[in-house]
From TrEMBL:
Pfam families: Glycos_transf_2
InterPro entries: Glyco_trans_2-like (IPR001173), Nucleotide-diphossugar_trans (IPR029044)
Annotated GO MF terms: hexosyltransferase activity
PANTHER family: GLYCOSYLTRANSFERASE, GLYCOSYLTRANSFERASE EPSH-RELATED
Official protein name in the record: Glycosyltransferase family 2 protein
Domain of life: Bacteria
Domain named Glycosyltransferase 2-like: residues: 4-169
Keywords linked to the UniProt accession: Glycosyltransferase, Transferase
Amino acid sequence: MKVSVIVPVYNMEITVSRCLDSIVGQDYKDFEVILINDGSNDKSPEICKDYVRRYGNIRYFSRENKGLPYTIKEGLDHSISDFVTFVDSDDYVEPNLLSTLVKAQKEVNADIVQSGIAYIGVDGSLKSEFKMKNSLITDKSKIFHAYFIEKSVNNTMASALFRKKLFEDIPFSQDLLSIDIQVMPLVLTKFSVFRQIEDVLYNAVQYPNSVSRGARIDKMYEDRKKRNILLESFFSQHAPELGDYMLYRKSMDSLFLYDKIRTSGDDIEENILKKIKEECRQCFRTYYPKLLNSNLYIQFDKKDKIKLKLFSISPQLYICIMGLYEKWMNRNTNY
C-alpha cells in the first residue's frame, strides 16, 4: 500500500533536513514524499532540491506564499496514493511510523489511524506526550465526544494516516490560523472506522518559527472569532447534542487570549490590547455562567475548570497565578 507523506515547508532551513532524514529512513518503503515550498525566502528550497536529487521517491513543488491550508490542499492534489500522512518540516518521526500505521490500518480496514505524539523542546528534551489507548471507534457521536469533550483524540493532522478521499470536498481557506481546527472535524464526519494506537511515533518540536505558530495577538483574536463561527455551524449540522461545547470554548478563549497578552512581545497599540481584554471579559461574563448550568460541564477537564473558576474570581488573579506557576515550572525544569 503506497502512502504519500506531505511536508509543507516555509523558512525551515534549520530543521527540514532532520525532518526529511527521519522520513527517508522509514523501515516501510512503499511511500512518496511531497514537499510543498510555500514561498520560503531562506535556504529551505535548496535543501529540498538536494533531497530530490538524492532520493527517487521525493517530489518538490514551489509557489508564492499562500499559507498552510493551501499548501496542504496542493499536497493532496499531487498525491498519487490512497493514503496520506502529514509531517511539519520542523518535526521528525520515528523510523517505524509508516510501517506501524499501515499495519494498524490493514488489520481493520481503517479510514484513519492515529498514534501518540511526543512534544520535544528545541534542546531535544521531552516536554510531554499525548498518549492514547488502543481503541476502535465506528460511531460518529462517540468520535465527536472524544474529540471535543474528552480530548482523547488528538486534534492535529500529524501522527495519523488518512484515507485520502476523506479530504474530498473539504474547503481549505486561507482565513484561519489553525487548519487542525478547521479541517479535522469535517474529516471526522466522513470516516467509518477510526483506530487509535498507543505507540508514540511523532515528535513535535516546540520551535518558535513553526508554520503553525507565531501569530500576533490581534490576529489570534480575529482568528478565534472566525473559528468559533465555523464550529457553531459544525455542531448545528453534525453534533447538535454537543452544542454547549461552544460555551466552554468561548470561555476558554477568554483565558487563552488574556494569557497571551501577558506573555506576548507584540508591538500592538495599547488601545487595541485594551479593547481585546475588555471583549474577553465581556465574552466570559456572557458564556461562563451558562457553561456552569450545562450538562456537559462536569465532563470537561478538571484543570480547565480550575482555571475558569480563578478567572471568574478575578482576571488579574488568574494572570498572577499563571505567571507564578510558569516560573515554578521553569525553575524545576532547569534543575
